[in-house]
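R.M. (postdoc): so does anyone remember the format we settled on? I'll just put the structure tokens first.
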């Protein structure tokens, strides 16, 4: 078997290909993308445009049909009410001038229709109003009778504030004419609240989400399918601007009273000329396009078929080159000699050349790295040795100063500082002895450190040290050092304050690790205990400040137990990598 075939395993060997006609990978992918995208884009654009136009036309037609239906409903309602008033105008009581009897007849009509009946003279003075008992003082009408007097035909007014009701109303006015007399004797009218038109508006099937509006001839809102109470009586200039001089039509860009952009269709009520508009929010008109985008996911399946056909042509060429590149990368990963590639794709050939160069550089750097690691180990060994010796010298100087000091308080402070220095010195001593520069056996280290601390600070042998520090707990040096300093500070406080009367006592250091890997370190004594309400976070002592600061640095949990006798501090540290 040839050397080339061996290097390419498990990818089957292929003959070398290449030459001046090799094109870039970008050219191949661009050709594939264009072949897949252009037909789909063209079809999608035509489909989106045609569907959007058809859906817009359908919604506009629905809006116009709805506006005409509402206008017809208003016409029917006004015709029915007009007929009722015309029949009431033939009342014998009205003809005979018996207004009391007419009041009773009009009240019955008002009860049946739900609309107050008003009788007034041609000057507009109310004579009967079913809202008030007969004989009550009545004000003049709140609207003009000029149109009905001139035409002598039924008239529907625009919106006004009722003189008796005190609320927005519109009136259906019917003249009362006596046989053989050309002049109008009285005027009958229904006072109608806009809520009646609102009910008619809601009875008609408006397009989903559309806004229906009925306005009077002055552009004041009589009824609105949304927010009736908020907008009734408001003048909408857009209604006048849109419908001026037109009986029916459409408006492309209109803003409704509530600020909603709409496309409006409008017509007018035949008997009154009131404009009736149905506005469809632009968001609803554009919604079909977004719905179509979801439907185009189905089209993606068809495009996928086309993609497969084109990918067979272009993908086979790219796949062959990538297989050769894979073999080259595999050889590079295993440290074997890397062959030079000759595929139809220039970029893959360039990457293969980089593999060849990288293989040689990796071999060179591996040799350099091995030499550097050996030098680093020797350097760290020497550094730990020198740091240990330097700290030992500092510790000796501190011990000499303690022995020569005549101030007991100063001697005690120097002894505590020396103990902290000894902790760091012991770390480097252990690193130097074990030859490991990144972690220590925490149990062995704390046992040795605690023993040395008690021996250094308890010169009278007052305390007995109980140790239960299990070995095998490997701790990174950046975490072991703060833990050792915490134990030193807690032991120092115990030796200073647990037995102030000089009686013998006991201090203990316990290290354990639970099955989940959490480490629990306990320092305890059997002394007098802490003052009631003692808070380590608020303590002013230097040692306790060091303990709390290092605990926070380790992100550990410090728990204080003050059950008699003595004091117990427990530090819990979450699992760390060995």
């Amino acid at each position: 078997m040839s050397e080339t075939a061996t290097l390419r395993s498990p990818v089957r060997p292929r003959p070398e290909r290449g030459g001046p006609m090799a094109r870039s990978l970008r050219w191949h992918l661009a050709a594939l993308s264009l072949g897949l995208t252009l037909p789909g884009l063209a079809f999608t654009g035509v489909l989106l445009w045609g569907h959007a136009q058809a859906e817009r036309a359908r919604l506009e037609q629905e809006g116009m049909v709805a506006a005409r239906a509402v206008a017809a409903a208003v016409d029917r309602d006004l015709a029915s009410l007009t007929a009722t008033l015309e029949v009431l105008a033939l009342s014998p009581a009205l003809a005979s001038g018996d207004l009391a009897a007419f009041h009773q007849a009009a009240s019955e009509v008002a009860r049946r229709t739900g609309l107050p009946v008003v009788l007034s003279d041609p000057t507009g003075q109310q004579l009967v109003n079913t809202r008030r008992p007969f004989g009550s003082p009545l004000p003049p009408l709140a609207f003009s009778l000029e149109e009905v007097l001139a035409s002598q035909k039924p008239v529907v007014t625009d919106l006004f504030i009722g003189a008796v009701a005190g609320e927005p109303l519109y009136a259906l006015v019917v003249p009362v004419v006596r046989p053989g007399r050309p002049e109008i004797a009285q005027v009958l009218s229904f006072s109608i609240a806009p809520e009646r038109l609102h009910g008619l508006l809601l009875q008609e099937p408006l397009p989903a989400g559309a806004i229906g509006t009925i306005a009077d001839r002055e552009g004041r809102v009589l009824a609105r399918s949304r927010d009736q109470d908020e907008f009734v009586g408001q003048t909408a200039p857009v209604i006048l601007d849109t419908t001026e001089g037109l009986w029916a039509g459409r408006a492309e860009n209109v803003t409704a009273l509530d600020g909603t952009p709409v496309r409006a269709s409008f017509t007018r009520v035949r008997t009154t000329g009131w404009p009736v508009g149905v506005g469809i929010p632009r968001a609803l008109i554009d919604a079909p396009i977004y719905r179509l985008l979801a439907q185009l996911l189905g089209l993606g399946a068809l495009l996928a078929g086309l993609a497969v056909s084109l990918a067979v042509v272009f993908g086979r060429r790219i796949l062959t080159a990538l297989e050769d590149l894979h073999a080259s990368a595999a050889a590079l990963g295993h440290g074997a000699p890397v062959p030079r590639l000759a595929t139809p794709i220039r970029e893959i050939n360039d990457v293969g050349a980089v593999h060849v160069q990288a293989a040689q550089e990796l071999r060179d750097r591996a040799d350099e790295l091995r030499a550097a690691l050996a030098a680093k180990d020797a350097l760290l060994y020497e550094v730990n040795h020198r740091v240990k010796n330097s700290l030992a010298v500092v510790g000796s100087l501190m011990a000499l100063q303690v022995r020569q000091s005549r101030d007991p308080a100063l001697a005690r402070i120097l002894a505590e500082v020396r103990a902290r220095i000894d902790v760091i010195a012991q770390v480097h001593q252990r690193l130097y002895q074990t030859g490991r520069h990144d972690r220590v056996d925490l149990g062995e280290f704390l046992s040795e450190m605690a023993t040395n601390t008690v021996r250094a600070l308890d010169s009278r042998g007052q305390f007995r040290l109980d140790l239960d520090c299990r070995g095998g707990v490997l701790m990174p040096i950046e975490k072991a050092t703060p833990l050792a300093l915490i134990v030193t500070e807690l032991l120092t406080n115990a030796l200073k304050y647990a037995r102030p009367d000089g009686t013998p006592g006991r201090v203990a250091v316990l290290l354990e690790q639970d099955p989940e890997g959490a480490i629990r370190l306990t320092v305890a004594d059997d002394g007098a205990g802490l003052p009631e309400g003692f808070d380590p976070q608020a303590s002013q002592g230097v040692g306790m400040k060091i303990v709390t600061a290092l605990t926070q640095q380790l992100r550990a949990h410090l728990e204080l137990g003050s059950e008699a006798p003595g004091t117990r501090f427990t530090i819990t540290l979450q699992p760390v990598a060995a």
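R.M.: ...and that's the designed sequence above, right after the tokens. Also worth knowing: The domain at 460-578 is CATH 3.30.565.10 (Heat Shock Protein 90). The CA atoms of residues 340 and 353 lie 6 Å apart.
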